[in-house]
UniProtKB/TrEMBL annotation:
Keywords: Glycoprotein, Glycosyltransferase, Membrane, Signal-anchor, Transferase, Transmembrane, Transmembrane helix. This is UDP-D-xylose:beta-D-glucoside alpha-1,3-D-xylosyltransferase. Coiled coil: none annotated. It comes from Methanocorpusculum petauri. It is a single-pass type II membrane protein.
Length: 326
């Protein structure tokens, strides 16, 4: 396998879905900070809304991204089987979350791939983990311990114990380095996925629990910097890491100090050129903010001034203006 390119995968169930904007932000942040050329693999169902304007528009924006950043984007069509679509967890979670389970078969020419959730912003160079010479190590996946498990109820802990998932190795599946070659050769993975989903209809976190059931004894634990969860670590340093917006999303809540990182990369992405698309998120921020004022960077400013400055700051950065004051 040619390791001179970083291969990263996203599960995008529907190319017409507004969530493409958030994946576009993740890709923008990744490629702008990566010292290696990047190939993005989008897993999706091409039968969904193929003739809709949103489908065509998002495809165009991915093409613009290729031109802007030199990133290569590959589309991989998948139709999820009935045992996935009929699983009770699909009623609570978007089917896109299951797509990573089919990566070994969908990407037969790759030995390794990096999977990222779409609520992530990358502020570090992921070429560093790609070049860490992990390829000769005998693990199926590399991931970060799930930092939110300490807030779970006793029933979830008990359920994981019954599934033989050790707490000390329970990992968050939002950032995964997957050894596809080993998974293909050492695991009958697709059959195992079907068996587990049918055996456990009430998995608390269906895809993540499934991955832990299969790989919790075959995982390399990575430093927390590769999955820095905003909700549970508000005081962490987010300057050189993978920011994972677990819980409240930055397009819904501006309360966290690193919410701005999402907007910064949005304005640099092709989706940032369409105010009519992200204005619903801005309106949502306004509706959730205090009526008269919002606390930001230690100062109190008017909500109207904050929203105006947010938009002006983004456009100024796109145009290359370096100095801007709130």
């Amino acid at each position: 396998m040619n390791l001179d390119r970083l291969h990263v995968m996203f599960g995008m169930w529907d190319l017409a879905d507004p969530y493409n904007q958030h994946i576009g932000v993740t890709i923008t942040s990744l490629v702008m900070n990566c010292s290696l050329p990047v190939t993005v693999h989008l897993l999706y169902d091409e039968n969904l809304h193929k003739d809709s304007p949103e489908y065509q528009e998002n495809q165009l924006k991915y093409q613009q991204m290729e031109e802007m950043f030199g990133v290569e984007i590959c589309y991989h069509h998948i139709e999820l089987p009935a045992y996935v679509l009929n699983h009770p967890g699909t009623k609570r979670w978007n089917p896109a979350t299951y797509l990573r389970l089919f990566a070994p078969d969908l990407l037969p020419d790759l030995d390794w791939v990096l999977y990222l959730d779409g609520d992530i912003v990358v502020t570090c160079d992921l070429a560093e983990i790609w070049n860490q010479k992990l390829w000769n190590e005998n693990f199926a996946v590399a991931a970060v311990r799930d930092s939110c498990m300490f807030d779970w109820s006793k029933s979830i802990w008990k359920r994981h114990e019954n599934m033989n998932v050790p707490h000390e190795n329970y990992f968050n599946a939002g950032f995964l380095l997957m050894n596809l070659k080993k998974i293909r050769t050492a695991y009958n993975f697709q059959e195992t996925v079907e068996i587990i989903l049918k055996k456990y209809p009430a998995l608390p976190f269906p895809d993540q629990d499934l991955l832990n059931i299969v790989f919790s004894h075959d995982v390399k634990i990575l430093p927390e910097t590769y999955n820095n969860c905003v909700l549970f670590h508000p005081d962490n340093d987010y300057t050189n890491c993978v920011i994972h917006y677990i819980g409240e999303k930055p397009w819904r809540n501006i309360g966290h100090s690193v919410s701005w990182e999402y907007w910064r990369y949005l304005f640099r992405s092709p989706w940032g050129n369409a105010p009519e698309k992200y204005m619903p998120s801005v309106r949502l921020l306004v509706s959730r903010a205090p009526l008269d004022e919002v606390v930001l960077t230690g100062r109190i400013i008017s909500l109207r001034k904050f929203v105006c400055n947010l938009l002006r700051r983004g456009w100024n950065e796109v145009r290359g203006v370096k100095k801007f004051r709130w």
